[in-house]
Design brief:
single chain
């Protein structure tokens, strides 16, 4: 059975999209915030995207979320975005970014020091695991 050339590269496009989306901290924080929530639970924004590594005020973050981050997350099917209530919940493809984020936190002891230095999220998670 022959496959079409466009289908041959769909897997690569999915991976590229996944890493592009996870390349920005507010989007990673949203995925991380949804990890422990059930499928049907909505979480409020911009709180779910806030990070101790960011110095952005909530209003500026909300603007960035509306115009940049949430459209990408929703288009990929990683979240369902309720524009009126300004909240998100897991989307139909949530398992893709969840896999990456969960595996990073499960491998904290193996993360190179250069990626841990000054990252308050990883340091906090590492300290929580030690206690």
């Amino acid at each position: 059975m022959a496959t079409s050339p466009s289908n041959d590269w769909e897997w690569a496009e999915r991976w590229n999209q996944l890493f592009d989306i996870l390349s920005v901290e507010p989007r990673r924080e949203i995925i991380n915030s949804l990890l422990d929530e059930p499928q049907e639970r909505r979480i409020s924004l911009p709180e779910a995207a806030e990070s101790p590594n960011q110095s952005m005020d909530s209003e500026t973050l909300a603007i960035h979320l509306r115009h940049h981050h949430l459209p990408k997350l929703a288009e990929a099917g990683y979240v369902r975005w309720d524009r009126e209530r300004f909240c998100v919940q897991r989307g139909p493809n949530f398992a893709e970014p969840a896999f990456i984020v969960e595996n990073v936190f499960e491998s904290i002891d193996e993360i190179p020091k250069s990626l841990v230095d000054n990252c308050k999220i990883i340091q906090k998670s590492s300290n929580d695991d030690a206690n």
